[in-house]
Amino acid sequence: YESQTVPVDVGLTADTLPDAIINDLSQTYNFDTLANMVASEIVFEVDKILETSGYYSASDGGGAKYLVVAPQAADGYGDHVLANGNVAVLQVDGVINVRQFGVTSEDSTNAIQAAVNAVGTSGTVLIQGIHTKISGRIDIFNKANFTVSCRSGSMTQLTDTTRMFNFYQSTDVEISGESFVLNGVGTDFNPSLRTTGAEGIRFTNCSNFCCKGLHFKNFGSAGIRTFESTVGIIENNTIQGTALDHSNISGGDNNQFGIDLYLAGSDRIKILNNTIFSTSQGVKTSYNKTIEISGNTIYSIVGQHGIYAGIEDYLTITNNVITDIFYDSIKVQIDDTNRVDDAEGLIISGNIIADSGNVGIEVLTLTGHTGVGAFSEVNIEDNIVTRTGNSSIFVRNIKNLLCSGNNMSNSGAQGLFGDGINGAISNNKIKLTDRQAVTVSPKDGGLVEIVSNLILDCCVAGSGSTDTAIEVAPPSAVVSCKASIIGNKLTFDTSSCTKSVVAGSSKIVNLIVQDNNLGDFLMDINVAGLTKFDNNLARGMQLGSPDTANAIWGDGGKRLFANTDPSTAGDIRQYYMGDVVHNIRPSIGEPIGWVCTGNGSPGTWRGFGTIL
Questions:
Q1: How far is it, in rounded angstroms, from Cα 404 to Cα 226?
Q2: Beta bridge partners of 293
């Protein structure tokens, strides 16, 4: 026979084939299914190779190769006793289909575990074209170059196991899916069955790991969790319903996550392009380094945050879409209350955020923080943040902040609130805030620059003392600081904002308010300690709070207008040589205006151009 498989068209049956032909070790004998092989009464000798085309049928993908060995204990999965007592042992050649181990639509925990064990250290376990169940976890320990490939089917938990797949102390491992669903104990229709113990997949002490393309549903604790693992990618997964029964969730529930980089010790992990919804929280990382969270879609978060990060160092959160969040869409926090070094390398950019119950983007140290460690450099750039219950962006304890190019609108409080910060707030568009567009308290000895922002219709709630467009307010702990408010444009369709700029503290030892376009209706500028003041002031703008009859206002550059000169008006603000105030009620014998001939508060003024 030229073929390595016994031909079926030679006019002989298995019963009439000579034993020498049947047991010719150079030829492989084929059965349609495993059941046919086990039921056969053919006497196969040791070292004979047998093949099955399928497990249940010839085309179900469960085909395999078996080696006949002398009688031994058979495990019931990869080993099968033959007619004469010899045993057919499954031959693993890199890829194992779990059907070869008898996986069915019922509880197949032991069969799947047997398949994993049979592959050995390296290889592939294939779960394909079947909807199966498990009542315990599948342990994948001490593997290298190992893959679990899930295709066209599902796996459902029957009991509250700790997790479905448990990867431990392994390297170069992957679990991937295509049209494959992992179901937790709970269901869409009975979410009360979800408990806090169940996870979909966990990686512990693993390196170079990957989890991609799977659909997780109704796990009580987490869809994917890592612990002390390095260099990993979690991408293109869908995670839904990871939380307790939604009717029992409050804003304080924070232990259920779509993806959880658990506690400390993980680094160089990327969380990319996942879809997470109807969970208690979306993505969490704590005390981990060099984490990237990018391109994810996170929505309908019913417990707390879309993304929560207890930062160690080097965190990038970019190009995510985060909507309909109970509390903060993005929250980054220094959790270590005694941290003595600075947290480095935080970038939050290009995210689209909408409908946050509290804050869109929040970066701060934990309440009670007593250590000297702060955020060293933070870049918050080019984000779109709309419809937040509180501030669009809230930041605290940052040594060098760049907040630039963000589009903030419809916030229930400030557009941006900064507490204890240095750095630049520039080129942002801020619209329809209930309170201030920008309010900041600088760090002691620091500089805050508020530059080239477009502010539209802030302070729409008209809340009295908080109706300020831009406010710099050093707290009591600050001895001195600096501030520059330059090149901003304020436009209003409402008159609820009554102060354009407030920087009234003498602690601001160097204050520049320059080249701003401050609106087109009666607004107050309340500043102290000016070293430079040169703005485009709209007609009707009131500077400071002098007597209304003697108010000084302007319509561009240094073109100031009044009834009389600043000294007669009792104005005590800082003026500089060359400042000119034009007379708005000229008459015969009166000057055309007044010029400042000596710096001071208000300085020395002389009339010019007497009208004859």
A1: 33
A2: 271, 317
CA 80 to chain centre: 50
State the Cα angle at 447 between 444 and 453, rounded to 5°: 135
Structural contact between residues 252 and 273, judged by C-beta atoms closer than 8 angstroms: no
| Angle, alpha carbons 487-488-491 (nearest 5°) | 140
- H or E stretch including 209? strand 207-212
Three-state secondary-structure class, residue 181: strand
Choice among 121-125, 241-245, 332-336, 575-579 with the minimum mean pLDDT? 241-245
CA 264, 267, 270, 275: dihedral to nearest 10 degrees?
-10
- Whether a cis peptide bond, with omega within 30° of 0, leads into 602 is yes
Distance (Å) of CA 42 to CA 21, 58, 422, 475? 12, 20, 85, 92
Strands (E), 135-197: 138-141, 144-157, 163-168, 171-183
Q: Which DSSP string do the residues of 546-571 spell out, in sequence order?
A: --GGG--EESSTTEEEESS-TTTTT-
Mean pLDDT of 566-588: 79
Burial of 570 (0-12, 13-18, 19+ CB in 10 A): exposed
Instruction: Grade residue 556 by pLDDT with cuts at 50, 70 and 90.
Output: very low
Answer yes or no: are the C-beta atoms of 98 and 109 closer than 8 Å.
no
Distances (CA, A) of 452 to 34, 429, 455, 486, 512: 75, 9, 10, 6, 14
Amino acid at 574: Q
Return d(Cα 314, Cα 92) in angstroms, integer.
43
Contacts 24+ apart (CB under 8 A), 71-79: 75/114, 76/102, 77/101, 77/102, 77/110, 77/111, 77/114, 77/115, 77/118, 78/114, 78/115, 78/118
- Structural contact between residues 267 and 292, judged by C-beta atoms closer than 8 angstroms: no
Length of the chain: 612
**Phi, psi of 550, rounded to the nearest 5 degrees:** -110, 25
Distance CA 39, CA 81 (A): 10
How far apart, in whole angstroms, are the C-alpha atoms of residue 559 and residue 561?
A: 7
Q: Which residues pair with 113 in a beta bridge?
A: none
How confident is the model over 514-524, as pLDDT tens digits?
777 776 544 55
State the pLDDT at residue 14. 66
Q: Residue 298 in 3-state DSSP?
A: strand
Is the entire prediction scored with pTM above 0.85?
no
Q: What is the pLDDT of residues 282-315, one digit of tens each?
A: 999 988 999 999 999 999 998 889 999 988 899 9
User: Any bridge partners for residue 279, and if so which?
Assistant: 301
Cα distances (Å, whole numbers) of residue 584 to 2, 98, 572, 594? 114, 92, 20, 11
